[in-house]
């Protein structure tokens, strides 16, 4: 029953944040923002709230489970997994409404056509929002048998980069790609992504090596195969997205370089 209460709280919390932020944006900036702007900014703000919450929760867990990284337990580990589970359903609906508001030509179509249009153009995020709760939730709650709260806490902190990604998308939505704010946020996004989504995996292996008294190179053969495969499945798309970010940043700086040469 306690888990059900936490799940209900999560189911209420994220939509409530969306409604409140959207109301405030219309109230204070309604004359300057379009409906597409409001919904896009609102969705990204709620994503940042979820990410900040997960990062803080993960930090608390990791700090409290330092003594024995395999056996130490913290009540927030499973609690936040249950609380955060409804976020993926909420965000799927929020993405749909944001997409519809940014595509005026789709708004007049029948509902099923709008839904199909959204699904076709949002495949990657829909797969992400479907697979993540289906894989990570049972892994955290059931399959790990109460071991490794420290590692779960560190993985929660992978969300650290989301506010920077969201801020960059908001600036793009508000037609501010030409500003230094956009460039600065882009660099922060790449740096935070590198640390929290890529370098975090070597850190976890190193931390286990210290705990078990093993050379780092021997860790992969001493831990279950499913752990190695799980880390690999998560890491590979992160490397691809990091490549896309670095490539995009390179194009921006190359354009700045060309402009400086012209002057």
TrEMBL record:
<dbReference type="InterPro" id="IPR006634">
    <property type="entry name" value="TLC-dom"/>
</dbReference>
<keyword id="KW-0812">Transmembrane</keyword>
<protein>
    <submittedName>
        <fullName>Protein FAM57B</fullName>
    </submittedName>
</protein>
<feature type="transmembrane region" description="Helical">
    <location>
        <begin position="49"/>
        <end position="65"/>
    </location>
</feature>
<dbReference type="GO" id="GO:0055088">
    <property type="term" value="P:lipid homeostasis"/>
</dbReference>
<feature type="transmembrane region" description="Helical">
    <location>
        <begin position="7"/>
        <end position="29"/>
    </location>
</feature>
<dbReference type="GO" id="GO:0005783">
    <property type="term" value="C:endoplasmic reticulum"/>
</dbReference>
<dbReference type="InterPro" id="IPR050846">
    <property type="entry name" value="TLCD"/>
</dbReference>
<dbReference type="GO" id="GO:0016020">
    <property type="term" value="C:membrane"/>
</dbReference>
<dbReference type="Pfam" id="PF03798">
    <property type="entry name" value="TRAM_LAG1_CLN8"/>
</dbReference>
<feature type="domain" description="TLC">
    <location>
        <begin position="36"/>
        <end position="254"/>
    </location>
</feature>
<keyword id="KW-1133">Transmembrane helix</keyword>
<feature type="transmembrane region" description="Helical">
    <location>
        <begin position="180"/>
        <end position="203"/>
    </location>
</feature>
<keyword id="KW-0472">Membrane</keyword>
<feature type="transmembrane region" description="Helical">
    <location>
        <begin position="223"/>
        <end position="246"/>
    </location>
</feature>
<feature type="transmembrane region" description="Helical">
    <location>
        <begin position="150"/>
        <end position="171"/>
    </location>
</feature>
<feature type="transmembrane region" description="Helical">
    <location>
        <begin position="124"/>
        <end position="144"/>
    </location>
</feature>
